[in-house]
Hints:
The chain is of the alpha/beta class. It has helices spanning 18-24, 42-52, 67-78, 91-104, 148-153, 156-167, 169-183, 189-204, 212-232, 241-252, 259-274, 277-289, 303-312, 323-327, 331-346; strands at residues 7-11, 33-37, 56-60, 84-89, 108-112, 124-129, 132-137, 143-147. Helix 8 runs antiparallel to helix 9 and helix 10 (241-252) packs across helix 11 (259-274).
Amino acid sequence: MLAAPMAVEIGPGAVAGLGELLADRRISSGGHVAVAVGPGYGDEIAAVVEPAIENCDIVRVEEGGTRNSALELADRLRKQFYDAVVGIGGGGTLDVAKHAASLVGLPMVAVATSLSHDGIASPVSSLSHDGQKASYGVQMPVAVLVDLDYVRTSPARMRRSGVGDAVSNLSAVADWKLAERERGEPVDGLAVALAHTGAEAVLHSEGTVDDDDFLVVLGEALVLSGLAMATAGSSRPCSGADHEIVHAIDHLFPDAGLHGELAGVGALFAAHLHRGVQLARELDACLARHGLPRTHRDLGLSDEQFAQAVAYAPSTRPDRFTILEHLDLDEEAILDHVHSYADAVAS
């Protein structure tokens, strides 16, 4: 059975339509709803939400993306009876709301105000604790809304980051198929199709993050990534060597870049290792078109630092087989590939 949200809506005015959606989809017909809003938009969103939902409590998430915030929200939810939880904000706020809702067993509606990564519809929350990020399995949102009115006003860098995360699916799928060939790992064809379709749409779209039409394509791709993970039962269709490198950089060199920026660089390097000339060319062109980092040097990392991250990367997902595990390169060989990759992109 395919797990999927009851509703997916991408367009302007999604926040204002929340009350109607909750009642029409019978998520909460006149019941009590907790609305968790992230930092930055709190008062503005509350002014729109409170008239739209008859019986709601606005709960402000002061620090998005942390496990402590999720635990605090869960404690708040346990103190009263609620039909559902609505999370409104960027990826960090949605991850907090998803985790808290899962802890207390409530359905959760995700309303995205930015498109920085593919967590908006996924059954995974990425949360930091004591300076380290970890992924937690959660319930998939029962409905997903992307409000383009807010997405348009989010920093362009955040929107570009979503592009990097979306197209990195292509290298992740290549890694999964490699694991099938080399180790007989089962590959879910539907999960691959969902992850691949969204990534290809973004890869070949001629728009920019300033165009509504492109933002719809990007939003759809990120939602499809979430569905792919739910179908596979893991992050496998959207996370291969590219995301191993992301997690390694996060651990060794915190704040080197946004998640999607790192994913784009990781995907391009993984394509280089796969010797996928066509994929590497298309990924490079897409990253360049959207002004995203294309190599570690664009992130401010030296060749030696990036090689260190690549060497560390397999330990971030010990159970995952990717091109990194397949090649099993020593430090000298990794540095040689890093040099040739950076030179090839620069040429």
